[in-house]
Amino acid sequence: MLIELASHNEDIQRLLDKGYALRVDGANLVVRDIPYLDEQLALQTGAFVAKLQPIDKVRVRQDDHQVYFAGAVPYGLDGKPIPNLAGGPCTLPLEKQDVVVQRSMSNKPPNGFPNFYDKIEHYVGLICGPAIEKFKATPLTFRIDKEVIGNSIFKFMDSLSGRAEINDLNARFKDDVVAIIGLGGTGAYLLDFFVKTPVKEIRGFDGDDYHVHTAFRSPGRLNEDELGKGKAEVYQQRYENFRHGLTLHNKYIDSNSAPDLDGVTFAFVCVDKGSARKQIFDLLIGMGIPFIDVGMGLNRKEGPLAGTLRVTSYSKEDAAKVRDMNLAEMGDDPNDEYRRHVQISELNALNACLAIIRYKQIRGFYVDNVAAYHLLMDTANLKIFSQRH
Asked: How far apart are CA 182 and CA 188, in angstroms?
């Protein structure tokens, strides 16, 4: 990634050509092998980190005039901390653990920095000068780390995680293979959320076609030439430019679908037919795959709509026990043909939000003070009832 980035950004290429030890880590440019003096005027080696702001898929610009520094407070030959650095102690999570940010630095010249080359040269002049003079040290080691950090699943740089400084939390998803069973209203929103989550692989399953009513309860555009095609085909084309590891299948999951779920580490069940749900539950429990089931029940008696959103979590250890509580419909109503399946896009999206938040709690991305396996949200009063073991 570094070589590709340099080929489209002259300032980074100049840094590379001059001999700086560059690395790309997420949405950050790391400049290693930065010599400096510590409090005892001993030689130490640190690293600068500068955030990358994507312009497009291959071009980047500066986020601001600051840099982050992996190292202690740098000192001058006079035995005093180098002045006018502002900033202070802070952290910045990186994917590669050999560089640990300890502080930020801010020393903006009157006209700012026109590019990364001038920015790094400026801070090198401030920090490295004393070490260069005393020990003949050099930051120009030509030590290039060509490794693509984390083998990013995304086809564009994930600048959002870099800006939010959550790359360390995102790493908790890197080995997950997620199955989304049912790409209707809630399933489609879950897919949209997971496309932007750095899980290793997403597998989606739905045998239905994409119609106008589908578009009214799913995210994104409506192209007339998509109507009548399989949902899996439509969403595959819609999202495959965003990430790798996305495979959507035009089929239903039933009791014979074990090969389709081989290797899956977490699943979401987004179906509205009880008999189908039962087969899927039994299959997932038999395969030892933890999962979350979602449901929505809305009705209209005389006036406005009211109802409940449901998110139920089935852990690998307690799935059979939770299944036997009958918290989700496991059979088909003989009068189901007369039932109105009311679904509204914002409630589909909210149901998907609750489900993925619960999943991210389980994975340690969000704080989980409740550890609930069953959530019910009443749309009339916007209260959430949670049930835990």
From this structure: 8
How is domain 175-387 classified at the CATH fold level?
Answer: Rossmann fold (3.40.50)
* 373 contacts: CB under 8 Å, gap ≥ 6: 312, 313, 314, 315, 318, 322, 387, 388, 389
Q: What is the CB neighbour count within 10 angstroms for residue 232?
A: 21
Q: How many CB atoms neighbour CB 55 within 10 A?
A: 11
Give φ, ψ of 271 to 5 degrees: -120, 155
Per-residue pLDDT tens for 167-195? 788 889 999 999 999 999 899 999 999 99
C-beta of residue 366 within 8 angstroms of C-beta of residue 357: yes
Of residues 284, 289, 286, the one with CA closest to residue 266? 289
The pTM of this model reads 0.74
pLDDT average, residue stretch 21-40: 93
pLDDT digits (tens, 9 = 90+) for 281-339: 999 999 999 999 999 888 887 789 888 999 999 999 999 999 999 998 888 776 654 45
Helices 116-135 and 10-18 sit at what angle, rounded to 10 degrees?
20
Contact present, 25 and 99 (Cβ < 8 Å): yes
- Domain positions in the chain are 2-150, 175-387
Closest to 206 in 3D by CA, of 233, 237, 242: 233
Secondary structure of residue 191 in the 3-state scheme: helix
